[in-house]
UniProtKB/TrEMBL annotation:
<dbReference type="InterPro" id="IPR013128">
    <property type="entry name" value="Peptidase_C1A"/>
</dbReference>
<keyword id="KW-0865">Zymogen</keyword>
<feature type="domain" description="Peptidase C1A papain C-terminal">
    <location>
        <begin position="86"/>
        <end position="297"/>
    </location>
</feature>
<dbReference type="InterPro" id="IPR013201">
    <property type="entry name" value="Prot_inhib_I29"/>
</dbReference>
<comment type="similarity">
    <text>Belongs to the peptidase C1 family.</text>
</comment>
<dbReference type="Pfam" id="PF08246">
    <property type="entry name" value="Inhibitor_I29"/>
</dbReference>
<dbReference type="GO" id="GO:0008234">
    <property type="term" value="F:cysteine-type peptidase activity"/>
</dbReference>
<keyword id="KW-0788">Thiol protease</keyword>
<dbReference type="InterPro" id="IPR025660">
    <property type="entry name" value="Pept_his_AS"/>
</dbReference>
<feature type="domain" description="Cathepsin propeptide inhibitor">
    <location>
        <begin position="13"/>
        <end position="58"/>
    </location>
</feature>
<keyword id="KW-1015">Disulfide bond</keyword>
<keyword id="KW-0378">Hydrolase</keyword>
<dbReference type="InterPro" id="IPR038765">
    <property type="entry name" value="Papain-like_cys_pep_sf"/>
</dbReference>
<dbReference type="Pfam" id="PF00112">
    <property type="entry name" value="Peptidase_C1"/>
</dbReference>
<dbReference type="GO" id="GO:0006508">
    <property type="term" value="P:proteolysis"/>
</dbReference>
<keyword id="KW-0645">Protease</keyword>
<protein>
    <recommendedName>
        <fullName>Cathepsin F</fullName>
    </recommendedName>
</protein>
């Protein structure tokens, strides 16, 4: 309310800021309407907690432009293909392999959440217990990546191997900014032996997921800023498959009213999308979802 009583310079400034945000908000509503009218799936786009941010602000705060710098990528070993056919649908949430949705905050650390989610799943499959593991350890101690300014899953696996493992979320909790590395070998509860890159064929990705656990994936997140619910299937002009800028965790797949989807665990809190999840069309390599699929290996 102060903002509307220009008694001093502060309040005028405040009005100006509010006007600025309102203009962005209106512009974003138009973008959401355009996405809505051209969506090929069943998604609903509209007002989200990111609606007052410009595309540039959203990208620089919550996304990870390093992902599409293909020259930075380290070559990874290919994953062994799965023998049997994939079941029609699968969801690791139904099988106890997925921790609750977390929140990366105003930090471009999605790469750490994607990789830690994958390791939580791998550890669960090998040992039968689901542990919530520490993303902050990667933000602070992974010298190959750039903390809140982005990173690559392939680097993160390597950093964890070098460190010797991961602590729990409760022992090394998330702050959302880079601090001095506080990793202690004595607190390691999970480790990995190596990492593999998956096929770029969505049928093979599905088969691998059903057999081997949730997968670290990346995608173009343009439409995610305005996503509310349903199966998102943006036109290619809205999400260039080569411009991937957000790492997430693929936990399952299936169909809704005949529309095939990937179930994707995001790291923007439970107040995003469908209880923190994003559902993306499966079968057209939408938004580059097949370009960077990987997993840790626990022997």
């Amino acid at each position: 309310i102060v903002c509307h009583i220009p008694v001093d310079t502060h309040s005028t400034f405040c009005t100006h800021k509010a006007d600025h945000r309102l203009r962005i908000f209106h512009q974003n509503l138009k973008t959401a309407e355009k996405l809505q009218s051209l969506d090929q799936g069943s998604a609903e786009y509209g007002v989200t907690k990111f609606s007052d941010l410009t595309e540039e602000e959203f990208r620089s705060t919550y996304l990870n432009p390093l992902l599409s710098q293909w020259t930075l990528h380290r070559p990874m070993k290919p994953a062994a293909p799965v023998q049997g056919p994939a079941p029609d649908s699968w969801d690791w949430r139904d099988h106890g392999g997925v921790s609750p949705v977390k929140n990366q905050g105003m930090c471009g650390s999605c790469w750490a959440f994607s990789v830690i989610g994958n390791i939580e799943g791998q550890w669960f499959l090998k040992n039968g217990t689901l542990l919530s593991l520490s993303e902050q350890e990667l933000v602070d101690c992974d010298g190959l990546d750039q903390a809140c300014r982005g990173g690559l899953p392939s680097n993160a696996y390597e950093a964890i191997e070098k460190l010797g493992g991961v602590e729990t979320e409760s022992d090394y909790s998330y702050t959302g900014h880079k601090q001095t590395c506080d990793f202690t070998t004595g607190k390691v509860v999970a480790y990995i032996n190596s990492s593999v890159e998956l096929s770029k064929d969505e049928k093979e990705i599905a088969a691998w997921l059903a057999e081997n656990g949730p997968i670290s994936v990346a995608l173009n997140a343009f439409a995610m800023q305005f996503y509310r619910k349903g199966v998102s299937h943006p036109l290619k002009i809205f999400c260039n498959p080569w411009m991937i800028d957000h790492a997430v965790l693929m936990v399952g797949y299936g169909e809704r009213k005949g529309i095939p989807f990937w179930a994707i665990k995001n790291s923007w809190g439970e107040d995003y999308g469908e209880q923190g999840y994003y559902y993306l069309y499966r079968g057209s390599n939408a938004c580059g979802i097949n370009k960077m699929c990987s997993s840790a290996v626990v022997n």
